[in-house]
Each structure stands twice: as C-alpha cells, then as structure tokens.
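can u pls check wat happens w/ molybdate ion
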Amino acid sequence: MISVDEALSHLFSLVAPLEAESAPLQDACGRVLAETVTARRDQPPFSASAMDGYAVQSSDAVPGARLSVIGEAAAGHGFAGGLSQGQAVRIFTGAPVPDGADRVVIQEDVAREGNTITLGDQLDEGPHIRRKGTDFSVGDAMKAPRRLTPSDVALLAAMNIPRVMVARKPVVALISTGDELVMPGEDPGPDQIIASNTFGLKAMLEEMGATARLLPIARDNTASLETAFDLAEGADLVVTIGGASVGDHDMVGDVAASLGMERSFYKVRMRPGKPLMAGRMGQAAMVGLPGNPVSAMVCGHVFLAPMIRLMLGLGEAPAPRRSARLAQDIDKGGPREHYMRATVADGTILAEDRQDSSLLSVLARANALMIRPPDDAPRAKGETIEYIPI
Ligand SMILES: Nc1nc2c(c(=O)[nH]1)N[C@H]1C(S)=C(S)[C@@H](COP(=O)(O)OP(=O)(O)OC[C@H]3O[C@@H](n4cnc5c(N)ncnc54)[C@H](O)[C@@H]3O)O[C@H]1N2
Ligand code: MOO
C-alpha cells in the first residue's frame, strides 16, 4: 500500500492544466483567471468629489468665508470652466473637481443665499477629493492564476475588462456502481439504498469549479459498467464510486482494465479510503473511489479537489491544512493515515466519537478532517494537530 502523498503525486501525474477560454465577465466569478489582465483606464479617471457640497480653493476654506457660486458640477456633467479665489462651484459626489479647486466643503457646513455661500464656523478636515488614479491606474495588473471573487469581478468591470481568459472547467463523469442503489426520489426495493455519493461529490466538485456529469447508476455486471464507461467519453476525469474492494461483486478494476485502463496504483495507507484505485483511461484520468459514503467524500477532499485545482492551473498542492489544539486526550493511532471527522471551534478541535465510514450524519455535522499520521503516538489535550477544513 502506498502513502497518501505517494497517491497524490501519482494522481497529479494523471492530469494537466487545461487550456484557457474566454468568458464574459458576468459569468467569470469562481472561474480561475488564466491570463493576467491590466487596467485599461485610471480610476477615477479625473479628480472626483467624494461629497455633495462646494468645490473651492483650500485657502478660501476658512470659517465665515463668503464665496460666489459660479456654476455646477454633477456626476457625468463636469463644470467646463476653472475656478479662482473667492469662487465656488456647486458639486455633487462623483463629479469632476473643476480646475483650480483643491477642496470640497460639505453642504452641511455651508449657508447659501442666491449665488453666495457663507462657510460655517467649524469646517471639517476635507479635502473630500479622490485623486485621479487613486484606486488603480492604466496598466495595473490582476495576476493569473487567481480564482475570481465577486470583488475581483467588480474590479475588472471598473477596469473596463468585459471578458477574461479563464481555465476551461474540468469535466468530471461520476459513476455510482452497485445493484443496491437507486436515485434519490425513486422507490427503493427492500434491499436497496439511495445513491448519495455522486450527489455529494457533484456538489463538492462544482463548488471547486468543475462540471460534474452524473451518469446513470452502473449495476454490478460487466455490460452495465462498460456502458457507464462509454457514457463517460469526453470527460477529463472519470470517477467511479464503489465496487473497488475485494468482494465478488467488486468489478470496477477488472472492467476498467479490460477497457484499457493503465493502473497507477491500488490501495492507499489511509482511513477511510483504503481501496482507492487510479490510472489513465485513454485521454482521461480514472479514479475509483471506495463506496462507503464517508470514504468517497474524504477521498474527494484529499484527492479529487487537488486534482481539480491542478487542472484549473492553480498548481500542484495537497488540500490546504490548518492546525488547532486538541480538545481532549486521544489514544495512539492506527497504521493508516486517519482522516477523522471532527469539529473545530475557537481554535480547538474535537473528534467525533463514531468514525465509521458509513456515517453521513456525522460527516455532515463535522467541519474538519483531523489528520493523524500513520502510527501516531497518543496525544494530550492542548497539543496542536493538523486538519483539513471541510
Ligand atoms: N474483506 C474486505 N472487505 C472490505 C475491505 C477489505 O479490505 N477487505 N475494505 C473495506 C473498506 S475500507 C471499504 S471503504 C469498502 C469499499 O468497498 P467498495 O469500494 O467495493 O464499495 P461497495 O462495496 O460497493 O460499497 C461499500 C458501501 O457503500 C455503499 N455505497 C456504494 N456506493 C454508494 C453510493 N453511490 N451512494 C451511497 N452508498 C454507496 C454500499 O451500499 C456499501 O454499503 O469495502 C470494505 N470491505
Ligand atoms: O477505509 Mo474504508 O475506506 O471506508 O473504511
């Protein structure tokens, strides 16, 4: 059995960064920027007022000063002329500050009569002017690769970038296998259960920026599995779930091999997730996940997510880890690297009592996978330990 790190490096060698494609900005959030973009303009493109009030010369901005109003500057409609000492221009937020002015006095500090204003007794600091290019200037870069956030999209829009080059979304085909499975909403027979893994994995993968195709459930026979692999044609990554172990009905490995899968490994020294297999199948990478629902989801976090990140151009790295203090003493660990369902709160981590790999209710209330290395020594409350946030 190989280690988790070894398995991960095999998996990385099965995939590669995908090509870039153009996307309209309104569809770009969550996509990974593939080419660095630079601002096409300064923001603001002129010195702009930050307040509603009067543009003046700062030497005139003294309590009690009387100034004559010579015009108006509104957002989208600047004042054409310049401004001299003793003069003021009525101005609104976002309007270009007229030439000659270097200060905006807010209207709350001004009394106006006709075209004359008198400044109040106490003026704030000002100057309430946003200098040209204060936010960004022509040529300022947003560097690739970068997963675009809503704030990034707003910034790109302001930079006048209507489309961006982003990594193509990896296409993942998800195949549940097993005679016992029916889809949610169907009527299960007395010996049947509902297929849950493909749904959890689809959600996880799509949250990461992949497109997941849910294929029909494959039954525990060669013909049905072959049909499922046929339907997976065109995917970048084919993921099967179940049928990976040693039972008489665990046929995924054999059928995949008969279809040309070149296996890179089978079985990983981890818990849960031991009967993991992977290889190359034509153009696609193939990963066979164990069927136990928590095993499949843990393998999703530990293996599939880093593969997706690599395909999106975000580099080759394991799932990001953090650390927290143990909330209780724990016994020595087992021979396999253990990803324990746990809850992190206020910097401390508490492992769930029940760690069976069938328990989705336990997984759903956990927010962390606490990682115990193989043959980990007993640990005391308060020690730091690593985890993967989920
Ligand atoms: N003699 C041994 N038996 C088992 C071993 C072993 O080493 N020796 N390994 C155990 C471990 S660890 C795991 S994990 C499981 C994995 O087995 P399979 O990958 O072959 O999975 P199945 O047998 O098909 O299913 C296991 C379990 O999960 C349920 N399942 C399967 N697919 C789904 C799905 N899409 N949604 C929800 N639930 C699913 C299935 O009904 C079974 O209950 O093998 C152990 N056995
Ligand atoms: O190791 Mo198996 O992956 O669930 O328990």
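Residues 293-311 form the longest helix (19 residues).
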